[in-house]
Amino acid sequence: MNFIKYFLQLLNTKIYTNVYTLIIIIVAIYLYHSNLEKVPVKQNEVITFLDSIDKRNKVLFSKIDSLDLKKANQLKQLDETKSHYDSFKNIIDSLSAVDALERLLSESRQLQD
Question: Which residue among 27, 39, 69, 91 is buried most deeply as judged by most CB within 10 Å?
Fold first, then answer.
C-alpha cells in the first residue's frame, strides 16, 4: 500500500523535480563509474609476474624432460642387463656342472679385468 501511495505521489509531482532528480542520479552514476575506472592498474608488474611464471614453467618442464631421459636410459640399461643375465643363465643351465664352473670362472676373470 505504501508503494502505491508513493507511486501516485510521484506522478502528481511537477515534472521539473523529476528531471532534476534524474540528472543528479545520472551525474552520480557517472562519477562513481569514472572513479572505478581510475583505479591504477600496474600492468608492468602483472606482465613481469606472468613472465616469471612462464620462466619457472620452462625450467620445470626441462627438469621433467631430463628426468624422463634418465629414466629411459636406466630402463634401457635394465633391459640389457636382464637379457644378458637370462642368456647367461640359459647357457649355464644347459652345460654340465664342470663346464658351467669353468664358464663362471672365465666370466668372473673377465669382470675383474
Answer: 91
